[in-house]
Amino acid sequence: MSSITVEPCTFALFGALGDLALRKLFPALYQLDRAGLLHDNTRILALAREPGDALTHLAHIDSQLRQYVGDKEIEDQAIGRFLARLSYLHVDFLKTDDYVALAEQAGTAQRLIAYFATPAAVYGAICENLSRVGLTENTRVVLEKPIGSDLESSRKVNDAVAQFFPENRIYRIDHYLGKDTVQNLIALRFANSLFETQWNQRYISHVEITVAEKVGIEGRWGYFDKAGQLRDMIQNHLLQLLCLIAMDPPADLSADSIRDEKVKVLKALAPITPEGLTTQVVRGQYIAGYSEGQSVPGYLEEENSNTQSDTETFVALRADIRNWRWAGVPFYLRTGKRMPQKLSQIVIHFKEPSHYIFAPEQRLQIGNKLIIRLQPDEGISLRVMTKDQGLDKGMQLRSGPLQLNFSDTYHSARVPDAYERLLLEVMRGNQNLFVRKDEIEAAWTWCDQLIAGWKKSGDAPKPYAAGSWGPMSSIALITRDGRSWYGDI
Ligand code: BG6
């Protein structure tokens, strides 16, 4: 069915009854199977700590799968084939004895892929137990985020895993890297000489990266409150997007060539100074407001919340990259929960022409913009200046789009979920879309100094109404530089 060859494997999913596994991982595996991308001999072992009868757990996985995949994509034959690959095993992740049964089921005839959808605190123990029962040889391990909550704790987790697995068999997930449109950033930049020649401080004035979510905390208060939006979104997803926009062209498409370039960007990020903390960074926390016309509670009134919390649900900041390509080009990053819409978008603002010959009152609109829409309505649009039509218009300028909407242009049936791509690449042994240890560490180093600065200042996050674009000071952050967030309504 498919032209891609994927070797058979035993896919052992730790934390198989957790939210991530049920919502994302089983549906992604099912979609791969349905697309003919799983080898006939591939087996899936669902491993969880929950006691109880295996058949009951399997029935639960089945019913959740149908719910998350949706009626249109559930096919009886595909579901039957998928469930036939699946078995359930009760494993207490900390007990070596429980791994004996896993070793028997997994065998050594084909490669083991061990996916850790569990808290990072147990990654080391799982690795050690896999090693005790002889399951490390040739095994690939997949680590979910968050890996630690700062540089020190992430090093601990990475070091614990590294005792048993070499870096080239460790796959650290950042699911944004699996999104089709995020991979398109590489194609857009390096397969089009048109852009790459302009991609520097000579032609670009600034860059905006917005990842806005409409949802609030959705029952995850316990986890989220310890993390906050900086750790949950900026440290990984937004910094990865920034790297893909800012990195130099890699020598080739190999995982290490790309990752070497990304690390250089992370290391070139200017630390935020104590003064910068007040002018360059805004933390916010949502208060009650409206989402889709319905009133919704504030962060401190969410289920299981603690009314004292000063965890941020919104961050906007200006990052500067200290290198020749980007000197003097600010990258404005913004991400928050309970924003007016779900939107992930990158806007590259080009400088105005070096010699301006049109009417002075039109000067403000001059400047091309490249808008890369990651979700929803994936596509790319380039705003270009043209002359308005009509005899009475003279040389009146107008900004219009050169538009590429992926689903209209390529008539793609469906955009695969990021996890489908990522799981497929693990099975194919391609580390391109996974984060290397030094990348994570460089990202934490930059975020840690920010968190330390916040702690020292003791400032509480600024309130913003649910359903708004964040605190007023996030608008001031960019208007102070004579700019505005693109497209805010
Ligand atoms: C996760 C964060 O990594 O990404 C969540 O932990 C966030 O808080 C999610 O909601 C957003 O992902 P997506 O793919 O919906 O943009």
Automatic annotation (TrEMBL):
Organism: Pseudomonas lundensis
Role of this protein: Catalyzes the oxidation of glucose 6-phosphate to 6-phosphogluconolactone.
Keyword Oxidoreductase set for record: yes
Protein name: Glucose-6-phosphate 1-dehydrogenase
Boundaries of every Glucose-6-phosphate dehydrogenase C-terminal domain copy: 187-485
Single Gene Ontology BP annotation: pentose-phosphate shunt, oxidative branch
Binding-site residues, NADP(+): R49, D92, F93, K145
Domain Glucose-6-phosphate dehydrogenase NAD-binding per the UniProt entry, residue ranges: 13-184
Catalytic function, reaction form: D-glucose 6-phosphate + NADP(+) = 6-phospho-D-glucono-1,5-lactone + NADPH + H(+)
SUPFAM superfamilies in the record: Glyceraldehyde-3-phosphate dehydrogenase-like, C-terminal domain, NAD(P)-binding Rossmann-fold domains
Catalytic site: H237
Pathway involvement of the protein, from the record: Carbohydrate degradation; pentose phosphate pathway; D-ribulose 5-phosphate from D-glucose 6-phosphate (oxidative stage): step 1/3
EC category: oxidoreductase
Pfam families associated with the record: G6PD_C, G6PD_N
Keywords for this protein: Carbohydrate metabolism, Glucose metabolism, NADP, Oxidoreductase
Annotated binding of substrate, by residue: H175, K179, E213, D232, K337, K342
EC numbers: 1.1.1.49
